[in-house]
Write a structure and sequence with these properties.
Elements lengths: L11 E12 L2 E10 L3 E3 L6 E5 L2 E2 L5 E3 L2 E3 H10 L3 E8 L2 E2 L2 E6 L3 E6 L3 E3 L5 E3 L12 E3 L20 E2 L10 E12 L2 E10 L3 E3 L6 E5 L2 E2 L5 E3 L2 E3 H10 L3 E8 L2 E2 L2 E6 L3 E6 L3 E3 L5 E3 L12 E3 L14 E2 L6 E2 L2 E9 L6 E12 L4 E3 L3 E5 L2 E2 L4 E3 L21 E6 L3 E3 L2 E10 L3 E3 L7 E5 L2 E2 L5 E3 L2 E2 L1 H7 L3 E7 L2 E2 L2 E3 L3 E6 L13 E3 L14
Antiparallel strand pairs: 1-2, 2-4, 3-6, 4-5, 7-10, 8-11, 9-10, 11-13, 12-14, 15-17, 16-17, 17-19, 18-21, 19-20, 22-25, 23-26, 24-25, 26-28, 27-29, 30-33, 31-32, 32-33, 33-35, 34-37, 35-36, 38-40, 39-40, 40-42, 41-44, 42-43, 45-48, 46-49, 47-48, 49-50
InterPro entries: ComplSys_Reg/VirEntry_Med (IPR051503), Sushi/SCR/CCP_sf (IPR035976), Sushi_SCR_CCP_dom (IPR000436)
Protein name: Sushi domain-containing protein
Keywords: Disulfide bond, Signal, Sushi
């Protein structure tokens, strides 16, 4: 039995289908399912839903992935002393619930100079039981006799170094941690720790510390550009590829000053739509450190033939009308439209398929044999089914600056063709509130109002950089684009050692608002 529920599961979708419709409500074959982010397939069932001798197998199901409270992590970071983040983290969230961090996420901390961890691991992880691993506790080192000592301040026996406004600045980077003693208005002793903006990495031969050593500063850290891939190349592939859709799983990182480049380590996951199979590169397309995209996938119709045209026979008369048949369509063809637009080589072929619930009568492949086409098949309705002529929703509308994140197969239910398409905006674009919904439906060829993807507002990167004074970066979820950081991104800070937040200033969780402005910055003094 086949109906509207066959291709649907809660919190999931069907990226691939191979069904033969035996009537308007029966079919044979299989359906493959996948889950939306935040959910995973039940391993005991698998991802295939198979019709076996008239009986469907157990239907796959998407189970919630465990998650931990983001508020709990933020509270720990805000109240911890002697602790800093190392910049190593992977915090995964659901778009629909940013208060939860998914299991498997982690963030790595370190105790600052003069402090020792006496608590849990410095690698804090979210377990499958939806709880954070025990948090670390950084306490001051103790000397003999029980008196507290600390090495957070530099040794003042050495000479001071010159200090001005350039000391705490590096190109494409920012101060991550500071331990300085000011011996005058323009001299200081101690050290400065730097980190780099997205798209840049510290020169490993120099490191991240800038140290005053007996009156002389060490070599200053520098941020080098990381490799990147062409964004237009990826967009061209997506625009021209057939039978493919994006799954919604992606991480495309860009530089604010150059949105034409996607940074190395970025990725986007595709899937072949119903009736297509990948014969090319991996469906997980990644940008390598060499600045090149991995080989793109190539989704071809499942029925595509491998007939090689022969040039030894006479050509057949050809016109584009041969690619259409009533209640069906040409799914693939070889050797046509050559050597001219009105001829096909001997051995050329056209493969046809019927739209549900029509059945193909005759050979599905029409072949040119020495100047003569073989018989063209026809698509006939089941004798018990009456179908009114209507568009079958096979045309997918185009939405500028977007890609298809989900597409259901064309279904024929109650004498109506139905289909749904989910659009997602390209990085740097967002749906406008006055446009249609991102999920649009087609009924007998008529689509819902389409969404519109417009340029996303962005917040100034330089403004953020200038505000990072006497603070340490804990973690961030910033995406570069449109000359800055895109709206919705955030950065979590903590005051540097020896500094406290002014209660009248902004929160340590700084957010890029939908207006393209930053929330109020914190002041640590």
């Amino acid at each position: 039995a086949f109906d509207g529920t066959t291709l649907n599961i809660m919190n999931g979708y069907s990226p691939n289908v191979s069904l033969s419709y035996t009537s308007s409500n029966t079919a044979t074959g299989w359906v493959q399912f996948a889950c939306v982010p935040g959910y995973a397939l039940d391993a005991a069932v698998g991802n295939l839903y198979i019709c076996n001798n008239g009986v469907w197998s157990t239907k796959p199901r998407c189970l919630t992935i465990g998650g931990c409270s983001f508020l709990t992590l933020q509270s720990f970071v805000s109240n911890a002393t002697g602790l800093m983040a190392t910049g190593q983290s992977q915090l995964m969230q659901l778009a629909q619930n940013t208060s939860v961090i998914l299991s498997g996420s982690y963030i790595v901390f370190a105790c600052i100079t003069g402090y020792t961890n006496t608590g849990g691991s410095l690698n804090v992880t979210c377990s499958s039981s939806s709880s954070w691993s025990p948090f670390p506790t950084c306490v001051l080192n103790t000397g003999g006799g029980g008196s507290l000592t600390t090495t957070t301040m530099p040794n003042n026996n050495g000479l001071s170094c010159a200090f001005d406004t350039t000391t705490l600045n590096i190109m494409n980077g920012y101060v991550f941690n500071v331990s300085l003693t000011y011996t005058s208005s323009n001299t200081a002793t101690g050290w400065v720790q730097f980190a780099c903006l997205p798209g840049y990495a510290l020169d490993s031969t120099v490191g991240n510390l800038y140290v005053c050593n007996n009156g002389v500063w060490s070599t200053k850290p520098r941020c080098l550009t990381t490799g990147g891939c062409s964004f237009s190349t990826l967009q061209s592939f997506v625009s021209n590829a057939t039978g493919i859709m994006a799954t919604g799983q992606s991480q495309l990182m860009q530089l604010p000053q150059n949105t034409s480049v996607i940074l190395s380590g970025s990725y986007i996951v595709f899937a072949c739509i119903t009736g297509y199979t990948n014969t090319g590169g991996n469906l997980n397309v990644t940008c390598s450190s060499s600045g090149a995209w991995s080989q793109y996938p190539n989704c071809v119709p499942n029925t595509q033939t491998t007939i090689v045209p022969s040039n030894s026979g006479a050509t057949c008369t050809y016109s584009s009308s041969l690619l259409s048949i009533a209640n069906g369509y040409a799914s693939s063809w070889t050797g046509v439209m050559t050597p001219t637009a009105i001829q096909a080589l001997s051995g050329a072929s056209i493969t046809y398929m019927c739209t549900p619930p029509y059945n193909l009568v005759g050979n599905s492949v029409m072949t040119c044999n020495n100047g003569v086409w073989s018989a063209q098949p026809v698509c006939l309705a089941n004798s018990a089914t009456t179908v009114k002529h209507s568009s079958n929703c096979d045309y997918v509308p185009n939405v500028a600056n977007s890609y298809i994140s989900m597409a259901t197969p064309i279904q024929f239910i109650n004498n109506q063709y139905q289909r749904k398409i989910q659009f997602a905006c390209n990085p740097g674009y967002a749906f406008t509130s006055t446009s249609g919904q991102s999920l649009v439906s087609c009924l007998n060829g008529v689509w819902d109002p389409l969404p519109v993807c417009a340029l996303s507002p962005s917040c100034s990167a330089s403004q953020l950089q200038s505000a990072l004074v006497n603070v340490q970066l804990v973690l961030n979820s910033l995406q570069a684009g449109n000359g800055g950081f895109l709206a919705g991104g955030w950065i979590l800070l903590q005051c540097a050692s020896g500094f406290t937040r002014n209660p009248l200033s902004g929160s340590l969780n700084v957010t890029c608002l939908s207006t393209g402005t930053w929330s109020v910055f914190p002041v640590c003094s």
